[in-house]
Amino acid sequence: MSLSKTAMISIFTAGAMLSACGNSSTHEAPHDTPLRGQSEAPEKSVSALAKDDKFTYANYDEMHVTHIDLNLDVNFDTQTLDGVATLDIARVKDGVNTLILDTKDLTIKTVEIFAGETSEGDVGYALEAADKVLGQALTIPLTDKTDSVKISYTTSPKAEGLQWLSPEQTAGKKKPYLFSQAQPIHARTMAPLQDTPAVRMTYSATLRVPDGLRPLMSASQGEKDANGEYKFDMPQAIPSYLIAIAVGDIQFKAINDHIGVYAEEYILDASAEEFAETPLMEASNEKFYGPYRWGRYDLIVLPPSFPFGGMENPRLSFMTPTLIAGDKSLTNVVAHELAHSWSGNLVTNSSWRDAWLNEGFTSYVENRVMEDLYGERRAVMEQLLSLQDLKADIASLPRPELTQLKLPTDMAHPDDAFSQVAYVKGQYFLMFLEERFGRAKFDVFLKNYFNDFAFQSITTEDFIKYLHENLHKDNPDALTRAELDEWIYGQGLPDTAKDPQSSAFDEVEIASQAWFEGGNIAPLKTEAGNWSTHEWLHFLNTLPDSLTQVQFEALDEAFSLTGAQNAETAFAWYMQAIKSGYEPAFSDLEDFLLSVGRGKFIYRLYGALSENGKEQWASEVYARARAGYHPIAQRRIDEILAK
Ligand SMILES: [Zn+2]
Question: Residue 337 catalytic?
């Protein structure tokens, strides 16, 4: 996810310009195109796996769920999904007749087992004691012949993976909205399953939703049939965290024949315009790393409470509306989610201890695509801004072990895997390898890596072995094992990390220095008139502590930073306003916190407020904002403000 990368309402400028890609017939649902690129038989891997994911109860070293079929009523009145999950299973070990599944806050009604089409009857099952993080194991006895299990169940209104929005919480204000977020371990709040990235399964679904609402899933999108049901199919094997659902008053606009945008009407045109260059990003990815293998690629712009920047649900990336800045300046998040179609969705970390395999690779690929399309200068600026975030995370993480790429066995919660370490340290590690082996060789290596491990879940150690056999063995002088180990198992940022020596921000620094030292603001005003969002972010992130309240007022007056429309710029300004106690920004900061639920912004804003003597004010704002935040964000901010 771009979880961390996290992780919304600015004013959305509804761009009225025509899409650059033409063919933008509006508001029509896309029909799913056959898979492009290599044809893929559905993968049903049942090879034995060592059980090294401690965030699952599933006995996936003994049997695998190979397919899950969901048949569900989406019930807004009770805020529940209600229906049946049918799981196909394949044994990895003979003679094992107990299936253990992950559940959290699910009400299980009945469990029926089957041998082929033949029912073997309802069976007694056990729902074990609940753990706060992991939920409850569901233990089901099987016969030697059992090959599928049918579970009738209901979700809870407080399911962590589902956010139910009232009509008032949406932009249109007329219809309710539901969206899911399964990564890392919330799929178990949506259905009983093997909730580990080590296991891949295909899925299908039948959904019934209230009239006037449209359901979408991370699958081929179904049209309403004669029974009023929508059918979905995901024929490619994916881990459970990529199962996703969104239901609302959702419209569609095409960008090209296999790429388009779903959104609420108010932001549909602006979103299609903002993301108009997605086809170029896809072409760039394919040029470097081989074919896009998932058929359609669509984006859905969710309500502002979506806690992340984006989530790479296959065929349908979930996106925050804070990316709609009106100038395409924040579209690296689209490049990021699209890149996950290779790194993460195609080749997947087999446990959250290896999250850098998903996020570090994706951040690296994202930056290569940004360089390819927009030039080295923008790519380097994005590297430098990310590096600032990484250094802040390394300094503030509660345990040094959490600054390792390979995370420790005693990691307390899989959310801990999604700091900037997995993203940016992972990216810089791959930049290091690229530098040592040379770009030409490294590009070929990565393309082969995505192909050789396609539709598999792997560990860090699998990657190291593959690197050795396919690149290092023939180029032994490029790096030492000690250098490699320091990157993967060492803490903090190694000395061998590239320091992007760039003049990209020199002009920003020169122009600002004279004003910092007490000069007139007029020259800065002239210079800053040409700054991109990236230059603004660098300027704001590096404001000196010595800045006076008078200087803050002058800045705000010259550039209208309070209430800035670009969410990233507004966030950077509010962080500085909090640190320096610049009160005139607080009323707009309050509006921002009440309307934006993206974790990247709100976690740090609440954190900064509580560290700078504003706990009381923060708690009062949070008391009003909390109901509008996603359950995932609520849990995090409860913790931040409890400190
Ligand atoms: Zn990501």
Answer: yes
